[in-house]
Write a structure and sequence with these properties.
InterPro entries: LipidA_mod_glycosyltrf_83, RgtA/B/C-like. It comes from Myxococcus fulvus. This is Dolichyl-phosphate-mannose-protein mannosyltransferase. It is found in: Cell membrane. Helix content is 61%, strand content 5%. By secondary structure, it is mainly alpha-helical. The strands form 2 sheets. Strands 5-4-6-7 form a 4-stranded mixed β-sheet, with no helix packed on it. The protein has a 3-stranded antiparallel β-sheet with strand order 1-3-2. Helix 4 packs parallel to helix 8 and helix 7 packs parallel to helix 17. The radius of gyration is 28 Å and the shape is globular. The N and C termini lie far apart (112 Å).
């Protein structure tokens, strides 16, 4: 007996055979579970090998430790098949409940679907927020997060640039834009505005956790509209399980904002093609928001969609006035803000601070490597990272199967390929400790394609008279077990590097210095003095810039010859200390810097000449 769900809206699950399957395949399930557990145990056993499974954070960005490579191999060859076997072993017991849940999801009315979408957003938000505090200890993963927050603090103070210290070399200027002794973050406007809102409202990084929840909701909405509510839930699950989505969501990078905006832009594109009118305006607005956060990535990602719109306009398949008018009006606020902000910071509306250190627009990189070198060291590297970090081998299969589903899936995959093409024009490989960070916008797009791929596989299984529940159980087992372990292990590694910064802060804050200025070597030089920290590593290489108002009790600046003497007039009410290497077992010590007595006035000699 088969109970058919609405056409194109789910899967026809067998309802009666499960009881007989339990008896018929009991020993098979036990064998599958035993082998699956063995493969998972073998993965953790790799920690006893010479390379181990230790993860570290080291320069250059494209470097991978041997332990990290062992983890990737173990995930693909041990965890994925182990998860498949565990899923198959549990299928006879969980399938009846899964069938009931699937039917219930497919029968949701409009209000229940809305409630479900809100629930997905709440879960995604909590995962991001809790993960930030549990695994990142509410600390940055890279220096540009600190620089962006400084820029937000500058904007919140009502200024575009603030006066830095004299000497300038004492101020931590990594990822800052500096001109004539004035400075701010060189990050894009959208990211700085997000931090400014956090400063003004006292919510800090909350806006980034809210943005992290948007892609899961957007993917669930699109998949529900096209395939049904149950498939919408599967799409949201893929976003939540993807390591490159889950781990980035804990950070405060601009990629979270652009990823959220582009996810909503895809939703508006779907609505605009169906209904037209104001949805073209919405597409333009969300495209502009993403542009303010990551301009080049936004343009490359959206290129296939806008080329398709242009093609339809040329063929008179879309109303020119409503479509073009809506898009132009939507883009206009972002473009005006972009040009005005550039002019206020650099003095040139066409010269963003981010690229002002390079030759614009001909060169967007510090190095002049060849196109072939960039393809290998940047495009190929990030393609590999996408394969590892999106959904692993299962993700590759699902994306490959779902890519040709229809026009939307083809456009989404084209967007990913276009974005990878951007790597040919720069050679900043980007970190991969939270996934291929420069390609974070790809996660929702790939999740949507993967949902269609899984739906196609289930349809094929049904036509071949195979139990779809078995296929779904194996796939979900691989994803939940394999990616669950992958996510947690990488999150724990991020916690280890966050512990470096927690310890450094605790040492300085617990010293009871009061209102003081601490002159220190470069941050990476300081924490590298601790062997345990040196073994883990971190991509945070510089001290956080002090608040533009210098209101904090403790201000940390770079040390150098004569810096203390030059800085004292700027901070007359503060004591000065120097951070120096300590004696075992203490890695550091703080030494007061005595006030320098003013030079004695020259005493005139009898001949009138000073002595």
């Amino acid at each position: 007996m088969r109970v058919a769900l609405p056409a194109g809206r789910g899967v026809c699950y067998p309802t009666e055979p499960m009881t007989s399957v339990r008896g018929r395949t009991g020993w098979t399930s036990v064998a599958q579970a035993a082998l699956g557990c063995f493969l998972v145990a073998a993965f953790f056993g790799l920690g006893r090998t010479a390379p181990g499974l230790t993860l570290s954070f080291r320069m250059p960005f494209s470097a991978s430790s041997s332990g990290e490579l062992y983890q990737w191999l173990g995930h693909a060859l041990l965890l994925v098949p182990g998860g498949v076997l565990l899923g198959l072993a549990l299928a006879p017991w969980v399938a009846p409940a899964a069938v009931r849940l699937w039917r219930r999801l497919e029968s949701l009315d409009a209000r229940e679907r809305l409630t479900g979408g809100v629930l997905v957003g709440v879960v995604a938000f909590l995962v991001a927020r809790i993960g930030r505090f549990v695994f990142l200890l509410d600390r940055p993963v890279t220096d540009d997060e600190q620089a962006a927050r400084f820029g937000g603090q500058v904007l919140a103070s009502g200024r575009f640039l603030v006066e830095l210290t004299d000497p300038l070399e004492a101020f931590p200027t990594l990822y800052l834009y500096v001109k004539d002794g004035m400075g701010s973050s060189f990050e894009w406007l959208g990211l700085q505005v997000a931090w400014a809102l956090g400063e003004l409202t006292g919510t800090g990084s909350l806006i980034f956790s809210l943005a992290a929840a948007v892609p899961a909701v957007a993917v669930a909405w699109v998949a529900t509209r096209r395939l049904g509510p149950a498939w919408g839930a599967v799409g949201a699950l893929l976003v939540l399980l993807s390591p490159m989505s889950a781990l980035l969501s804990m950070t405060s990078h601009a990629h979270l904002l652009s990823r959220a905006a582009l996810s909503v832009a895809v939703v508006f594109f779907v609505l605009a093609e169906e209904k037209g009118g104001r949805w073209w305006l919405g597409l333009g607005l969300m495209s502009g928001v993403s542009f303010l956060c990551r301009p080049f990535e936004t343009l490359f990602f959206l290129a296939p969609f806008y080329l398709w719109v242009l093609w339809r306009l040329v063929r008179r398949e879309l109303p020119v006035g409503a479509c073009l008018g809506g898009l132009v009006l939507g883009w206009l606020p972002a473009l005006v803000a972009f040009l005005a902000f550039n002019h206020a910071v650099t003095g040139d509306a066409l010269l963003p601070a981010r690229v002002s250190m390079y030759t614009f627009p001909a060169k967007l990189t510090q190095n002049d490597s060849s196109m072939l070198e960039r393809f290998g060291a940047n495009t190929s590297y990030n393609t590999l990272m996408l394969a590892v970090w999106f959904l692993g081998p299962v993700g590759l299969l699902l994306v490959g199967v779902g890519a040709s589903w229809d026009r939307l899936t083809k456009l989404l995959l084209s967007s990913v390929l276009f974005l990878l093409g951007l790597a040919l024009f720069h050679d900043n490989h980007g970190i991969h400790s939270v996934g291929p960070i420069h390609y974070s916008e790809c996660a929702p797009a790939l999740a949507l394609v993967a949902v269609h791929g899984l739906k196609r596989l289930v349809d094929v299984a049904r036509r071949a008279q195979l139990p779809p529940a078995t296929l779904m159980a194996g796939m979900l087992g691989a994803l939940v077990v394999g990616l669950g372990i992958f996510d947690v292990r990488n999150a724990l590694a991020l916690r280890e590097q966050a512990h470096i910064h927690e310890t450094m802060d605790a040492f300085l804050n617990d010293a009871g210095l009061g209102r003081a200025v601490v002159l220190a070597p470069q941050y990476a030089v300081a924490w590298n003095q601790v062997p345990a920290f040196r073994k883990v590593g971190s991509f945070v290489l510089e001290w956080a810039p002090p608040h533009p108002s210098y209101e904090s009790d403790l201000i940390i600046l770079r040390d150098g010859e004569g810096f203390a003497r030059k800085l004292r007039p700027r901070f007359p009410d503060r004591r000065f200390f120097r951070l120096l290497p300590g004696k075992a077992p203490e890695p550091f010590r703080l030494e007061p810097i005595p006030d320098e007595a003013p030079a004695a006035a020259p005493v005139p000699a009898a001949d009138g000449e000073p002595h």
